[in-house]
Specification:
Belongs to the binding-protein-dependent transport system permease family. FecCD subfamily. Pfam families: FecCD. GO terms for molecular function: transmembrane transporter activity. This protein has two domains: about 110 residues, no CATH class; about 90 residues, no CATH class. The chain is built from ten helices and no strands. The longest helix is centred in the N-terminal third of the chain and has 41 residues. The chain is flat, with a radius of gyration of 27 Å. About 0% of the residues have low confidence.
């Protein structure tokens, strides 16, 4: 008499056993599909944002003491409208170019800081870098400095604030502690900034407020070109270092698993 057949499930792979080539191939194909989908979604979002940016740029070029319609703006850009050409390309377009370059630089700085700190709340203003730069710049204006000296002082202030946050956080630039310490340093910098403004003369305080707010009213093509050149160089360096930067966004265990140093 034959023994009854016993239904069995799929064979179990012992824990710790190496995966077969077929399993590894399936995982690789799945990851490739996910990455391809992510790239398509990212490309779609970027394309949509660029279209919105182009529309807003045309509207911005039409605003001013002499309002221009979108058709006049396009005519000035293409050279078919001589009356609008000077207003658009000679006055407003350099301002727009400088504003876009500075905005891109600020966005890039925030994205890099969030990647390094691995915290979406981190930004230069939250962790005290902006406050340190502002306080140092206003102190420099109060001391009678102008021009590039004020910018250099602001750079030193930002680096000093970053060093202070790094030293007080105690455990590097990861985790919530770094952000909390950065918020404390930001408040400290705001206190120094307020004190410097109260001690400044009326002329110095006016100059300091104008410097803090900033303006692109007198921007020329040379200003936009300098900022764009620096921004382009930074983007090239970051593109070459994209793999280490992507590893910074991983948690420590995942970074070790892929062979990166956390």
């Amino acid at each position: 008499m034959n023994a009854p057949a016993v239904a069995t499930g799929p064979a179990r792979v012992p824990r710790g056993a190496p995966a077969s080539p077929a399993d590894l191939s399936g995982v690789t194909d799945a990851l490739a599909t996910v990455r391809h989908g992510d790239r398509l979604r990212a490309a779609g979002v970027v394309g949509m944002l660029l279209a919105v940016l182009a529309a807003l740029a045309v509207l911005a070029l039409g605003l001013g003491a002499v309002p221009l319609s979108p058709g006049q703006v396009l005519g000035g850009l293409l050279g078919s409208d001589d009356g609008a050409r000077f207003i658009v390309t000679g006055l407003r377009l350099p301002r727009l170019g400088l504003a876009l370059a500075v905005g891109a630089a600020l966005g890039l700085a925030g994205a890099l800081l969030q990647a390094v700190v691995r915290n979406p709340l981190a930004s230069p203003d939250v962790v005290g870098l902006t406050g340190g730069a502002s306080a140092a710049g206003v102190l420099a204006i109060g001391a009678g400095l102008t021009g590039a000296a004020v910018g250099s002082a602001a750079l030193v202030g930002a680096l000093g604030a970053a060093g202070l946050v790094f030293a007080l956080s105690g455990r590097g630039v990861r985790g919530t502690r770094f952000v909390v310490v950065g918020v404390a340093v930001a408040f400290l910098a705001q206190g120094v900034l307020g004190y410097a403004l109260t001690r400044a003369s009326l002329t110095e305080a006016r100059s300091a407020y104008f410097w803090l707010v900033g303006s692109v009213g007198s921007a020329a093509w040379a200003d936009a070109a300098r900022v764009a050149a620096v921004l382009g160089a930074v983007v090239v360096v970051l593109a070459l270092a994209h793999r280490p930067l992507r590893a910074l966004g991983l948690d420590d265990d995942t970074a070790r698993a892929v062979g990166a140093t956390p």
